[in-house]
Design a protein that fits this description.
Layout (H helix, E strand, L loop, with lengths): L6 H13 L19 H9 L4 H10 L5 H5 L19 E4 L4 E5 L8 E6 L15 E6 L2 E4 L11 H7 L8 E3 L12 H4 L2 E8 L3 E8 L8 E9 L5 E9 L4 E9 L4 E4 L2 E6 L2 E7 L5 E5 L11 E9 L5 E9 L6 E6 L2 E6 L2 E6 L7 H4 L26 E3 L6
Antiparallel strand pairs: 1-2, 2-3, 3-4, 4-5, 6-11, 7-8, 8-9, 9-10, 10-17, 11-16, 12-13, 13-14, 14-17, 15-16, 18-19, 19-20, 20-21
Length: 397
Amino acid sequence: MNFYAKPWARGFLDFAIQFTPPGSKTHAFGDGSETKPDTPVFHAFGSRMVSPRAAWYVSRLGGSEDTLSLLQAPYPMPVADTRVVSPPSGSAYYPSIGWVSMHSDIALGARSSLYFKSSPYGSFNHSHGDQNGLLLSVAGQPLLVKAGWYDWYGSPYWSDWYHQTRSQNAITFDGGKGQLVNGFREQLQRNGKIIGYAAQPSHDFAEGDAAAYGGQLTMARRQVWHLRDAGNAILVRDRLAATVPHTYEFNLHAPVAMTVESPSAVKIAINGQSVCVRSLNADARFSRWIGPGAKTNVVEDHGAFYLPNDGKSTAEFLVLLDVGCKRPAVQVSASAAGRTITVAGQSVTVEGAAQPASQSSLQPALQSASQPVMLPALQPGLRLSTTGTVNSPAPGK
């Protein structure tokens, strides 16, 4: 029996390609995700398959496998018999674990890669309180990161910081209160779920519903649009509700000191890559905060957009991740269906009304201060929808 030809083995390689594509400096989500992928292991695994995607992955990983494992390998390597070399799709969704990947173009080394998670496993075991959490890398350089480092399972540092929602690019409230991550089996009930997913050449979309706040919030939904026709800008919308007033926090973590350009805009730039984060809300303001010490020789910076809410209405964050700090024009306008957000000519229409920021604050802030879409079978009750219309600019515009 050829283990490497079994569906699980092939599926694992596809998963590795999506979440540790060539050039990745970290993994995605959970314990130890801040560590560098073990390239020789992935090289060895992919080399033993006859697959266009495996051949593409191995050819771009660089290096080689460990010498000892190579001595035990078949000759010639099975991957050498692959006549077609082809990258996978630029987006993937895994229903069983609630993970989504969105790449600008996975075949390119300069790709942007957004990872989104809302998992039915919650914070169980080596998972974290990061339902509806985000990670962002460009050309392999992490820009929005998971804060902290894995010292050991269950350590005081792990329990009080690394495992908590506040160390993720996710929503907290009232000074860092987040998803409930204590207990054992309870963590499986305090979970998340991907309730919408779509992949198109012009855009990707995912929506997560986080029930992991254990009744502290009555709604915690995050929608993410990856707008390829808008320079790979990413639009993030959070809708939050509770029975009592809260100040909600849209947390950001960076591997370098962030530059606060205005109360509604912050820039993250390192090693030639950047993302400019803009709040499109009228009343959400950014402020940095200090977290626990990072690992030796590692830089981490933390901050959040803060949004007060009276507990009688649904709070909304509307945030633009401007990959590459291209500073596109942004417009938010009322429409028959709700609101239309236009970024560099590509429009997203969402239901519901909210108070947008003034047009002046939406402009860039310069103050100092061939494979098919990888879509596994849907779970019962899961809808496949963009939850809104996405319109791209006409060719040439």
